[in-house]
Amino acid sequence: MDSKVIAAYVVALVVIAIIAFFVLPSKTAPQSTTTVQQSLTSSVPQKTNTTASVSTTSINYTHCTLSSGPGAVENGNFSTGTYSGWNVTGQGFGSAPRNITKSNKQLSYYSHPWAGYNGVYFATTFTGGTSVGFGNLTSDPFLVTYPYLNFKIISPQSQQLYITILYKGKPAITTYFNTYAAPGNSQNASSTFVNASINLLPLLCKDAQIKVVSQTIGTSFSQFDYIAVTDFKFGQEPTETPGILVSQPIVNVT
User: Fold this and answer.
1) Helices in the chain by DSSP H: which ranges?
2) Beta-carbon neighbour count of residue 71 at 10 Å?
3) Where are the domains of the chain?
4) pTM of the predicted model as reported, rounded to 2 decimal places
5) Based on CB atoms within 10 Å of each CB, which residue in 136, 155, 160, 217 is the most buried?
């Protein structure tokens, strides 16, 4: 074969080899890069979702955050000496809370002095006379950011005396107590406050109100069917004295 022809073949082979070396990898490299980028793009959100953690005491429910530690109800212990923050209807609870110290000095109690609470004021339908009054005591609206409402109460077992939590102005959680059933409270039950709690979990992040209800008609036969309450506050745990809960029906709160 002519030397010129051989030289032409050699040059052609060299050119092909150069093209294969430089051109072909350049076509595959972008494919590999694209694959990696797609993989990262799809895996980042998954990693974010699986590693995210939220404390149960700071869960965001669009318009509220669950609170931690103790929480106050506006004028929950009636420390103002008035019903500020509450709406009173009927005559049962009078025009103002009672002063415990003053009531005890004036012997304005049944059987034994008021006990079980270290504050100054409380709300009650007890009149010190021969009858009790009909009436309601309703708190201003509040946003539920705690699982429990804790308070102190005196109440015999009665379908006419109870505390209800209102949602949209209607009873949602109604609770009946018999504090006379509190352990070791048989002798002074008529004037000794005990701890009570209401589970607010069904109403978390909803607007609600506390309503203390006395539907007892005042007669000489029902003069001791009174209710007394004070020291309303929110909490992470219930403080209720065992044995005093009679029933706590819950209606649809959606």
Assistant:
1) 3-51, 100-105
2) 17
3) 1-53, 71-247
4) 0.72
5) 155
Q: How confident is the model at residue 53 (pLDDT cuts 50, 70, 90)?
A: very low
E strands present in 56-189: 71-72, 86-90, 98-99, 121-124, 135-139, 142-143, 148-154, 161-167, 170-177
pLDDT of residue 219: 53
Cα–Cα distance list, 16 to 19, 41, 89 (Å) = 5, 38, 100
Residue with the two structure tokens 């040059």: 11
The region, left, alpha or beta by phi > 0 then psi within -120 to 50, assigned to residue 157 is: beta
Q: What does the alpha-carbon distance between residue 8 and residue 2 come to, in Å, rounded to a whole number?
A: 10
Give the span between the Cα atoms of 56 and 35, in whole angstroms. 39
The string of pLDDT tens digits covering residues 208-249 is 999 999 987 655 555 568 999 999 999 999 999 999 999 998
171 CB-contact burial (10 Å; exposed 0-12 / middle 13-18 / buried 19+): middle
Average pLDDT over every residue of 64-73 = 80
Query: How far is 214 from 160, CA to CA, in rounded Å?
Result: 6
Domain 71-247 has CATH 2.10.109.10: no
